[in-house]
Amino acid sequence: MQLRYGFRLYPNAVQEAALAKAFGCARVVFNDAVRAREDARRAGRPFPTGGELSRKLITEAKRTAGRAWLGEVSAVVLQQSLRDAETAYRNFFASLKGTRKGPQLGAPRFKSRKDHRQSVRFTANARWKITVAGRLDLPKIGAVKVKWSRTLPATPTSVTVVRDAAGRFFASFVIDTDTDPAADAARMPATDRTVGIDLGLTHFAVLSDGTKIDSPRFLRRAEKKLKKAQRELSRKQKGSRNRAKARLKVARAHAKVADARREFHHQLSTKLVSENQGIAVEDLSVAGLARTRLAKSVHDAGWASFVNMLEYKAQRYGRTLVKIGRFKPTSQVCSTCGAKDGPKPLNVREWACSACGTVHDRDHNAAINVHQAAGLAVSACGAPVRPESVLAQREETGSHGFPTGCCAA
Question: Is the N or the C terminus of the chain less surrounded, counting Cβ atoms within 10 Å?
């Protein structure tokens, strides 16, 4: 499994100019590749191959007066931009055929120099390196200062330099985590605990053991500052320097919210994975919930990002993650006797079972049902196993097995 490790970069003025030139050259090559394929499609000709595009758009283009400046950046950056265009078309055609999971993708579009997020990728043959002083030495850019927050567990296979909307620079290293599985196992030893998680808005997560984790609501707490910055931006004249400064202020405010949410997700997901051998979570339809009146709160919670972190961390550290179907009525079934008591409005936080009389906390009961529906059990050695198939008794619910959802994010 491959993971990305991101670190903040602090280039000087000369290096920022070199990176801006690399971003621009990569964008031009990508747009030229899209234009060449669109011209071939309109003319009814076969799409040019990757080798033909590389020869025409890079090798031959450098010899012309209009594209001579392509030689001022690393050739690997240009080649990787061509590969990105090929990947975009491959995903587009796979989406048309229905062989690609997820929502249908549109055809690749031209990149704009006004895009607030720019990136270039350097592979191993670009001969980039990390110096003895801890700087990232990139070809035709120089040794860039890096803020190392941790050590890399293995030698990276590639590095992507990103400039985000807030004007910050980051280095994203691709690491193969399969090189040292023993170190991962030692970091998180096996345990005999399992847990079910009910994600919500009143509380971000309620666990089957009764633990309730409050929702930080980062966006809601920052709305006052965001509204003020957005109002200031709306008053600035388009194209002016003051508008660019105001836009950067808005972007930094949003970046602060996103960073805080991501840090919260990382800390909570790592805690749950380290303490539990098996984890069960409901497969929520985030896209559907985002079309309701609760859209802002749903996006503020970031459930999809949190579940993705649980997925790749569970796979890396030998845990089992089970996703329960979104149509399973976890909030309607009594976790004690299994009686289905029907749907309830969101303002009902506690209810009494009409069959056995047990009083349930809505979210805690749902978390217990998620845990029971997963059918997780733990062997003597601490490894999660599935229970054998048995006939469910009338009072037993959620004893049927469900397929696991352990895959890399």
Answer: N
Kind and range of the H or E run holding 145: strand 142-147
* Poorest-pLDDT segment among 50-64, 130-144, 386-400: 386-400
Residue 188: what pLDDT? Answer: 82
Q: How far apart are CA 182 and CA 168, in angstroms?
A: 35
Residues acting as catalytic residues: 198, 282, 363
Nearest-Å Rg of the Cα atoms of the chain is 26
Ranking 23-27, 38-42, 99-103, 219-223 by mean pLDDT, the lowest is 99-103
Task: Give me the sign of the Cα torsion angle 62, 67, 73, 75.
Answer: negative
- What burial class does residue 45 get, using C-beta atoms within 10 Å of its C-beta: 0-12 exposed, 13-18 middle, 19+ buried? exposed
Q: What is the mean pLDDT of residues 384-402?
A: 36
129 - beta bridge partners? 137
Instruction: Please give the helix or strand (H or E) that residue 348 lies within, else none.
Output: none
- Can you tell me the distance from the alpha carbon of 383 to that of 407, in angstroms, rounded to the nearest whole number? 18
User: For the chain, what's the residue count?
Assistant: 409
What is the rounded end-to-end Cα distance, in angstroms, of the chain? 10
Return the bridge partners of 377, or none: 385
Q: Rounded CA gap, 56 and 88, in Å?
A: 20
pTM as predicted: 0.84
- Which tokens belong to 180? 């040292």
Whole-angstrom distance, CA of residue 220 vs CA of residue 217: 5
Q: Determine the Cα–Cα distance for residues 363 and 266; give it in Å rounded to an integer.
A: 22
